[in-house]
Specification:
single chain; about 400 residues; alpha/beta; Aspartate Aminotransferase, domain 2; seven-stranded mixed β-sheet
């Protein structure tokens, strides 16, 4: 008999009752160091006081209006994101995949508006993950996500990640844009080389197509900049962000240049819940913290410390992890020799929450406010658990 909750997740036998900062507490009061953060969502840790205060203040005013009416905090958040990023305009959603869907529609609509309705195809990359809608799983192209859902939605041409020659060879008169993660998350914590992103920008400009960055996981401070592509010195035409933008409250956004968004006229897109007053109040509080002096520098410093400590673990436990530490900032991964999910279970039992990623990688996404004490604690747990897998 099917349970009342659709059984599409395999969950461990632990229930978390509350969270504070970098820690979660289960029903028995046991404390866990959270280095997965709801898959990169709770960037400011759990129950950050500034976010709690913003939500409490707004919940006493109004929860929902729909986008039929002006939402001042929505306008304010758009202005702030535009001022802090490459973008000229923003539109808000409840999730990352909605932001991806808008990005894809925007690329197609742009081409139609400039007289090229035949341009609708998007180049994507092996190992990508863009969400779970039919369009997003087709863009990601992974068999494990596509299986059982019939023919993949048409319109996507996939090439190897990091190979400019393959991208160039895949371009046709039907190509509307290129969709890429500056750092692949689900694909195994694989950063794109700056030269690769710069090359994609050149190809897009030469062909008159749009460059779309999926920054849902790697954006909003995760790498030590507001958006990960900033490290490459290159800007997209469109970017999708979410996860840490809401700090745990569902918020996504499609950011775009004016040119790219020119085809999105009244009625061409919409959302009922996206950009609601509660979400906007929290997201503005997130930006209040992230844009404070020293916030991104702290991420870089802590990321370097954590990466150096993890590198030591690779040397100390060659039967458990191998190769170089992957990623940048506080988006890091280690390639495992045992099944990564076995390590995730053992780490959780030892009090550290981590996650699996593609290519048998152990994924670490600590809160962006993490300190040296939490890093020391996490590395100590990793060292102890790895020792149990050495034999």
């Amino acid at each position: 008999m099917i349970p009342s909750l659709l059984p599409i997740h395999v969950r461990p036998d632990v229930v978390f009752e509350r969270g504070e900062g970098a820690y979660l507490y289960d029903l028995s009061g046991r404390r866990y160091l959270d280095f997965i953060c709801g898959i990169g969502v709770t960037g400011l840790g759990h129950c950050h006081p500034r976010l709690v205060a913003a939500l409490r203040e707004q919940e006493e005013k109004v929860w929902h209006l729909s986008n039929l009416f002006e939402i001042p905090e929505q306008t304010r958040l758009a202005q702030r994101l535009v001022a802090a990023s490459f973008a000229d305009t923003a539109f808000f959603f409840n999730s990352g995949v909605e932001a991806i869907e808008c990005s894809l529609k925007m690329a197609r609509k742009y081409q139609d508006s400039v007289g090229h309705p035949e341009r609708y195809r998007i180049i994507t990359f092996e190992g990508a993950f863009h969400g779970r809608t039919l369009a997003a799983i087709a863009a990601g192209g992974q068999d494990k996500h596509l299986a059982g859902f019939g023919p993949p939605m048409d319109g996507f041409d996939q090439v190897p990640f990091g190979n400019l020659n393959q991208v160039s060879g895949a371009l046709t008169e039907q190509t509307a844009g290129i969709l890429v993660e500056p750092v692949q998350g689900e694909g195994g914590i694989r950063p794109a080389a700056p030269e690769f992103l710069q090359g994609l920008r050149r190809l897009a400009d030469e062909m008159g197509i749009l460059l779309i960055f999926d920054e849902v996981q790697c954006g909003m401070g995760r790498t030590g900049r507001l958006l990960a592509h900033e490290w490459a010195g290159v800007a997209p035409d469109i970017a999708a962000v979410a996860k840490a933008l809401g700090g745990g409250f569902p918020v996504g956004a499609c950011l775009a240049l004016e040119r790219a968004a020119s085809g999105m006229t009244v009625g061409s897109h919409g959302t009922t819940f996206g950009g609601n007053p509660l979400a906007m109040a929290v997201a503005n509080a997130v930006l209040d913290v992230m844009l404070e002096e020293g916030f991104f520098e702290h991420i870089v410093e802590m990321g370097e410390k954590l990466s150096a400590r993890l590198d030591r673990l690779v040397k100390d436990h060659p039967k458990v992890v191998e190769g170089d530490i992957r990623g940048t900032g506080l988006m890091l991964g280690m390639r495992c020799i045992p099944p990564n999910r076995d390590l995730v279970v053992a780490l959780r039992e030892a009090g550290l929450l981590a996650g699996p990623a593609g290519d048998n990688v152990l994924r670490l996404l600590p809160p962006l406010i993490v300190g040296e004490a939490e890093i020391d604690e996490a590395v100590g747990i990793l060292d102890s658990v790895f020792a149990g897998f050495d034999s």
